[in-house]
Amino acid sequence: MWRRAASLSSLIFSSSQPLRDQQGAYSLKAWKFFCADSSKGAGYFSKEKNLFITFVLGGPGSGKGTQCAKIVENFGYTHLSAGELLRREIASNSEDGAMLLDTIKEGKIVPSEVTVKLIQKEMESCGNCKFLIDGFPRNEENRIAFEQIIGAEPNNVLFFDCPEEEMIKRVLSRNEGRVDDNIDTIRKRLKVFAASHHPVIEHYSKKGKLYKIDAIGTEDEIFERVRPVFAACEGAQ
Ligand SMILES: Nc1ncnc2c1ncn2[C@@H]1O[C@H](COP(=O)(O)OP(=O)(O)O)[C@@H](O)[C@H]1O
Ligand SMILES: O=c1ccn([C@@H]2O[C@H](COP(=O)(O)OP(=O)(O)O)[C@@H](O)[C@H]2O)c(=O)[nH]1
Ligand SMILES: [Mg+2]
């Protein structure tokens, strides 16, 4: 079942799912308790209850990174962009660099273990327990690898729902010098996205963790659709 985030003033949760905000609030309360208790202790990372994880999903150019920056600013999460971690790995001349660059240029998905290990390294070295994981998992294999290697599931999943033509327009005007921001790669990426994201979305939808956000509008308008998801977790509503 979708959780469609609606406009600013109304309740974002469908009336058939009234418990979600309560569950989110309880989860974060538990997180605060465990973080306060052991955030500096050895092995804190392996204690699943310490983590409060949101996966931020959506097609290329749907606005994931843009909205993550706003969530960080307003709610103090640590933002981990899987694509950014891969680009950093390429720039560091790692032995996987050539394979990663080729995969990204082709718009394909990097082997799960590589991406999950990069995410894990960042999570382990970060004092924060609240993570936005942006652009991951991109397929079921990614999802399963994360849950096995990290030993945790996301608390929430945001899905930015954006029409293809809008995604193409945004990517082509992104202007960040990315090797994949060209029409050939974007077309390939959209095919990969269409073929691989549904099972992930369905999985979290069935678990009642999915928030589907309409990604059309100004950046601020979209953030007002996102804000209540996090405000509910903070118990601020
Ligand atoms: N709501 C929006 N309306 C128009 N352009 C946007 C919007 N949100 C983001 N953008 C722009 O679209 C491009 C892609 O956004 P980005 O956040 O990088 O998307 P993603 O991480 O999903 O690929 C960026 O140039 C960004 O400034
Ligand atoms: O978990 C991930 C995240 C990214 N990528 C690769 O990195 C590219 C860029 O991803 P990013 O999330 O930065 O792109 P965005 O969706 O933000 O445009 C993707 O097309 C993939 O080739 C990947 O293989 N696995
Ligand atoms: Mg991005």
UniProtKB/TrEMBL annotation:
A ribonucleoside 5'-phosphate binds at R87, K108, I109, V110, G135, F136, P137, R138, R178, R189. Its main location: cytoplasm. One of its GO terms (biological process) is nucleoside monophosphate metabolic process. Its cofactor is Mg(2+). CDD domains: ADK. CMP binds at N142. Binds 1 Mg(2+) ion per monomer. It catalyses: CMP + ATP = CDP + ADP; dCMP + ATP = dCDP + ADP; UMP + ATP = UDP + ADP. GO terms for molecular function: ATP binding; nucleobase-containing compound kinase activity; phosphotransferase activity, phosphate group as acceptor. Consists of three domains, a large central CORE domain and two small peripheral domains, NMPbind and LID, which undergo movements during catalysis. The LID domain closes over the site of phosphoryl transfer upon ATP binding. Assembling and dissambling the active center during each catalytic cycle provides an effective means to prevent ATP hydrolysis. Catalyzes the phosphorylation of pyrimidine nucleoside monophosphates at the expense of ATP. Plays an important role in de novo pyrimidine nucleotide biosynthesis. Has preference for UMP and CMP as phosphate acceptors. Monomer. This is UMP-CMP kinase. It comes from Rhodamnia argentea. The lineage of its organism: Eukaryota, Viridiplantae, Streptophyta, Embryophyta, Tracheophyta.
